[in-house]
Specification:
2 domains; DNA-binding; elongated; homodimer; 130 residues; Arc Repressor Mutant, subunit A; two-stranded antiparallel sheet; mainly alpha; 7 helices
DNA sequence: TCATATAATAACCTTTTGGTTATGAAACCA
DNA sequence: TGGTTTCATAACCAAAAGGTTATTATATGA
């Protein structure tokens, strides 16, 4: 059995985090929680969706470690846990050099060279060279 | 009908991007493409998976605008498009202040105050005060 | 003690996802 | 020309996702 405070290892955690972020309702919930903890009712209010649906979304976020919950009378206040967001951001940051454009130029250059080489071959063919 | 060079608008694009990133196979494909364009066969090689499965993954990445494809004889070389990664990273960056810890302290403080207030009430109750 | 508020769970349904095999199409090459 | 390579598409399947309504559990508070 999984230990109580179970949190998934690196790749599974990224799976869960990115999957959680793929839903607009859940992203909106995270945005709301960024301005402070909130109860399930409070979180559900802006959405045209049943309470169980919101509870399901919260469970997804909780299993990804992005939300933790406390106790306040009948309420189960949710709070944002930022660590998974940070890890996701770190993962994306690895591609920074890419969108900074340093690679695009190299790619373009390689493509051009390839195209020229091919053009030469075709030219050779047309001239009857083997 | 959607125009030819269709790319989804802001929220749908984030949906597609994060959903694409949620699969480890697709993340591995992106990592491979970060070191340069590759054909479908080349991309499929490391995986214990059929070629159509890889083609499906590529279509997901393509629909998210994260991969574009060229033509080289029978091959359809894939290249990484970094823009969606950049947008995803930008979205995450909004939560930076959170993992930097500036909010956690406030949250903790608020919780502590609430707990103390509650403790006082209970104490009052035990002493028989209404 | 009992009605109420908050939230979770169960059971169900539909759509999407991630995989398979089989087949088809396009371009190369001998 | 005709076989080979590369890739896409179709048809199918099981499991997961995202929603619903109905029900249950827990704690409050009068």
């Amino acid at each position: 059995m999984k230990p109580k405070g179970y949190l998934p290892a690196e790749p599974e955690r990224l799976d869960a985090t990115f999957a959680a972020l793929a839903d607009p309702t859940r992203r909106a919930i995270l945005a709301r929680l960024a301005s402070g903890p909130a109860s399930v009712m409070e979180l559900a209010e802006p959405f045209a969706m049943s309470q169980p649906a919101i509870s399901k979304h919260l469970k997804v976020l909780e299993r990804a470690g992005m939300v933790s919950r406390g106790r306040d009378a009948q309420r189960r206040p949710c709070r944002l846990e930022a660590r998974p967001l940070e890890l996701a951001r770190d993962w994306l940051e690895e591609y920074r050099q890419f969108w900074e454009g340093r690679f695009k130029k190299l790619d373009a250059l390689l493509d051009e060279m390839k195209a020229q080489a091919k053009a030469k071959v075709s030219q050779g063919r047309r001239r009857g060279k083997p």
